[in-house]
């Protein structure tokens, strides 16, 4: 029997409760490689249900990543239970398509806080433990909206949040490299998940697909495979990268 790439590792994935979402696809892919996954999301029942869909040994917990106390307490719970955390994927995010003049202060706070403050909180919660073991891999879920200046579905506050998150990943990569903690980001193009619900219909998706060099939207599994690469030893010498997974939508 072959040994999985993440055998005996504990991986925390935020925003993983939706079975059609990117976080769930990442958690499932990691589990296939031998990891035990901890799915965090707003609703405890939904998080635990998602974890159970992957297998009984996995865990789902409620955690609003915007809240520093909740982030700290959740990571403490994971460490008390498993004694280690090898991987953190900062995947939780909210997308809104409001344009500049129709976005409110509340819209701005929500979109920025989930992506940026949430990743800041979760990383700060887990990094002391990773430093004590001198190992760890963190991935932040950005978007090509950051590089392209939006223009697909997300409004300007969404592009700004993803740009800030990708910069946070780079800065953490530089700061934490001496502790053997690697930090990278992924910039997906358009991924067919529930994030698109109410923003684009099937016809719209087909129109967008025609503008993508590879001719289709991404599936959540496309992003999960890239994420596996970034947390596995296959990318042992890569840190501070923003990996474009957009089917050529953004070629720079
Ligand atoms: N779908 C796309 O086209 C696309 C493209 C680029 C980037 N992304 C990014 O990928 C990530 C995953 O998106 P998805 O497409 O799977 O959407 P999704 O809506 O299925 O997943 C987002 C998850 O985050 C959770 N969440 C929201 N606020 C939270 C909070 N405060 N604390 C904890 N969890 C919270 C939601 O409950 C949800 O389960 C997001 O960061 C999104 O911005 C998506």
Summarize it:
The protein is α/β, with parallel strands linked by helices and 252 residues long. The chain has helices at 22-32, 44-54, 68-82, 105-133, 144-148, 156-176, 202-211, 220-231, and strands spanning 10-14, 36-41, 59-62, 87-90, 136-141, 181-188, 242-245. Helices cover 45% and strands 15% of the residues.
Describe this structure in words.
This protein has 252 residues and is α/β, with parallel strands linked by helices. The chain has a single domain (10-245), classed as Rossmann fold, CATH 3.40.50.720. Helices cover 45% and strands 15% of the residues. A seven-stranded parallel beta sheet has the order 3-2-1-4-5-6-7, with helices on both faces. Helix 1 links the parallel strand 1 and strand 2. Helix 4 runs parallel beside helix 6 (156-176). The chain is globular and about 45 Å long. The structure holds nicotinamide-adenine-dinucleotide (NAD). Nicotinamide-adenine-dinucleotide is lined by residues 14-15, 17-18, 21-23, 40-42, 63-66, 91-95, 114, 118, 141, 143, 188, 190-191, 193-196.
């Amino acid at each position: 029997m072959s040994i999985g790439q993440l055998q005996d590792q504990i991986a925390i994935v935020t925003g993983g409760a939706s079975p059609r979402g990117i976080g769930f696809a990442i958690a499932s892919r990691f589990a296939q490689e031998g990891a035990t996954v901890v799915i965090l999301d707003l609703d405890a029942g939904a998080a635990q249900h998602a974890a159970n869909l992957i297998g009984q040994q996995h865990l789902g917990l409620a955690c609003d990543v915007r809240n520093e106390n909740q982030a700290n307490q959740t990571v403490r719970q994971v460490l008390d239970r498993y004694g280690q955390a090898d991987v953190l994927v900062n995947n939780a995010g909210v997308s809104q398509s409001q344009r500049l003049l129709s976005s409110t202060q509340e819209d701005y706070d929500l979109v920025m806080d989930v992506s940026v403050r949430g990743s800041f909180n979760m990383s700060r919660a887990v990094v002391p433990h990773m430093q004590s073991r001198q190992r760890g891999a963190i991935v932040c879920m950005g978007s090509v909206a950051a590089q392209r200046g939006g223009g697909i579905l997300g409004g300007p506050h969404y592009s700004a949040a993803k740009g800030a998150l990708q910069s946070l990943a780079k800065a953490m990569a530089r700061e934490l490299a001496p502790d053997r903690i690697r930090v990278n980001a992924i910039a997906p193009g358009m991924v067919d998940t529930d994030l698109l619900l109410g923003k684009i219909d099937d016809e719209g998706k087909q129109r967008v697909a025609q503008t993508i060099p590879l001719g289709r939207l991404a599936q959540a599994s496309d992003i999960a495979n890239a994420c596996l690469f970034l947390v596995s030893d296959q990318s042992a010498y890569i840190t501070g990268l923003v990996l474009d997974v957009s089917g050529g939508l953004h070629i720079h």
